[in-house]
TrEMBL record, chains A, B, C, D, E, F, G, H:
Name of the protein in question: Heme-binding protein
Compositionally biased region (Basic and acidic residues): 126-149
Region: Disordered, residue numbers: 112-149
InterPro entries: GlcG_carb_metab_protein (IPR052517), PduO/GlcC-like (IPR005624), PduO/GlcC-like_sf (IPR038084)
């Protein structure tokens, strides 16, 4: 997520930030050897980029889009938004949202300009013995993958 | 919500009340400098007005329609209906509904004639330190916005 | 529901039982002065009858169909099925179902042949002070209406 | 499920394993006298086979597909995945999934190559007195039916 | 259709006309020995009644609703609206519509208050040799059935 | 449409043009005594405003949104785009579009910034004898209504 | 199709006929080395069997279901129904239908009891020079495949 | 399209070809200064990549996915498939397809392994006077853009 986060620092131009976000997303996928799915949505929730990872579970494709949508909707990482459900559990019933770690908001001058989502899994399934290799979200992703931590 | 609520007092004619509701909704949006989304549905749940706020999160548009639908369905503010979920949690599985603060019912002679929904957020995201500026619902709205309190 | 339940006792012929179910549903609606919504589905979940009540909330129309579908799926009243969620909460994620009181299964020779659903509300909204007139389900229906008790 | 599980041991070829899975699914349905619904999805979640059981509830058809999808998504039996919801309850909001016992993943060389789902019920409805004949999932299936135990 | 058409002449009250329309629809289905599907929608296109005929093709259920919707949308029989497609072929791309004979508009004081749709077929399929018993629309209905002629 | 078209001449600022478009749409509806439905979408096809006219057919609500979407997609009035179907008839199969008169594109510095759609009908139905009062599109609208001519 | 057609001659029992249809469909797929997709729907249009062929285009899966639905709806082979469009072109706008060769109706005592659909293609694409190996329908299938001729 | 087409010549490995297709798609978009939308689907029609162009009409995003799906379904360029509609006009009613120029099939050893779709338009709208800069398909794309010629 670091590369994506820098998009904010470097730009004050929305269009250029969005491009950098797409590039950062593509780079993150490349670094993972294409084994993660990534998505970018604009401020209005329209999907700008959706890319399916090699060998990842089919659920990752649509969930990355929804994580990105959720992050840009409230301008916060989706892992932080998950905690809001303790107080307002019906937030997650809003169409288009998914309250699961792996989404991040990209900002320019403090305003949200895009959302990013990532998810992916090696083909070895759920193994709760190796938490280092997997996210707490239950969607198994590799260490260093473009999630929101 | 005050302006909307008055529609009830002034009218005994459904059609006229609906018009006043639309006007009250538009006025509320105007007063917020268009930074909230608003919706009005009729007694049968048909959308009469849906207006997207400037710079609000994309989730606000569809959620206002659903809040309005929920309020008119049971003729009660959606914030009150949220409390019913403690006893009947599956009420929220009824299609078209959203149990989240921000919906209100408009009545003429005690009968529901329309539903109203509002939602919106400045681009600063979730900030639980400033509860005064945001609703408990988790959908961040400005003080005085046309929600159901 | 008594009239509907009798369909079982009187028939051993599926088609005739379904007709009697439709008639019982129509009669129940008639008795309530058309102020409830009713639905009948066949054993395979196909809607056979759907009728919207006068002045009821819009949510009642689709929810009656889903209650009927749920009842015939497990051959049990939906109010009893609600209790199963305590042990298996994800049952309610099965598409087409709604776990809310008001659905009943109709049987011939102990096998389910149809599902029935009812819902409705006078225009006075939620009033928790008069539990006698309303069902615990939160969908407000009149005493004696064709629900599953 | 034993027959299905063996597909893994016998093959290292994806296509052949998928065929064996379909055959095992068909055999399982046959053994149950066609009174269960079964489904097979490929690694990418596409439905390869969907077969509706005789006399089963209508909800079983679509739920078998979703169970198979869920199992292949995380390469684990759906009954095990249900337990993950205790920690990550929003996993079940991912589109296409259903966290309910009855789904299994089929693997070749440890990698998931297909998902399998089964569900079905005799027409006698829910009877909590005979747990031996029914799965804890709440979807009533016969002893020995192709679920994931 | 005659019985339905009379609803207009007898009433000047919308609610009562709608009730008469439902009754006329039910009577028409009864006269056909339940072998037709019928539907009634209100002025805003909301389904008020949908009833599936015995032994009719499955396509008839949804198509009656759409015929009724189409008729009330333009306040004209759907068979007449079909002819409009010669000049404006894309009219039929409007969601919810179906330009096929069998829909009728019900009016009170010349204004549309409801739409009606009917369709049905004996199980003998298409037989173009007996045009007297079937409508030109290709949806086979019996002579005298509640279509729009 | 004249009022809407002027939005282009007066502005070079996207946000302001969109606001003017909304106002022009609301004014047009007002002038027609609320008897037309109107919609505004932004450059990316997101609905900004949708308003249902009094007494218009139910089909008008969704069709205005689609007309606006179509106009902004190709930056041309929908009536002109209808003519393109003679050469490329499958253009109309693109999701979200509706090739029917009544849509217009709003531009700032020649670039499309919003789409507008309008439709509506008095309750008198189709009357091809009075073409002056109705559009050739088959969606009956009043002279001077905010269509695209 | 011959094997499927015989189901009619041999049976007068609906359930048994449906089973034979499924078996005939599975046999047909087997004979084609699994390189076709097949589907069976019951009289009410519910999918009983859907099986995706190896290496066939993805469009074949859903289209077989719709062909089967179309055939059972009017109790006629879909290739014959295609010809009806010359007189009633809007028949094809009925939801769930697909007017394309490859669907057949299965009857018992002249009444339709099930629909069958088949489609498939070798990976060589459209080659109009070898009509013998492909159907005129444009969905390329092998000689002898279970279509409706 | 040239770069994409070469993927076939260089590879005999499906996975690698798909990667090259994605890269070729990204390169094509890059060359056009991101002013086109592009999409890649796999042999089973699953979306692998979807990327929205800068400033293109909103309809381009979903239509590129459908063009790619159509091309891989019949292993032919979508512009060639358009011609098939003259003989089999209902082919275009198959769900997921779009018969419009701009889709191409990618093959390895003559078998289809992926589909590609492209669409895009400068913000100047339809201008039939400059056919050299635009495709006959009506979706305006730049000379040299990754369509199927």
């Amino acid at each position: 997520m670091a590369a994506v986060a820098k998009a904010d620092a470097k730009n004050d131009n929305t269009m250029r930030s969005t491009h950098l976000t797409i590039e950062a997303a593509a780079d993150a996928a490349e670094k993972e050897n294409q084994q993660i799915s990534v998505a970018v949505v604009d401020r209005n929730g329209n999907t700008i980029l959706a890319m399916r990872g090699d060998g990842v579970g089919p659920q990752s494709f649509e969930s990355t889009v929804k994580k990105a949508y959720t992050a840009v909707s409230w301008n916060a990482p989706s892992s932080r938004l998950v905690k809001c459900l303790a107080n307002v559990p019906t937030l997650k019933d809003i169409p288009g949202t998914l309250f699961l770690g792996g989404g991040a908001s990209v900002t320019a001058n403090s305003a949200p300009i895009a959302g990013f989502g990532g998810a992916g899994a090696p083909s070895t399934g759920l193994d709760e013995k190796s938490p280092g290799r997997r996210r707490r979200s239950g969607e198994v992703v590799r260490r260093g993958s473009p999630t929101d931590r």
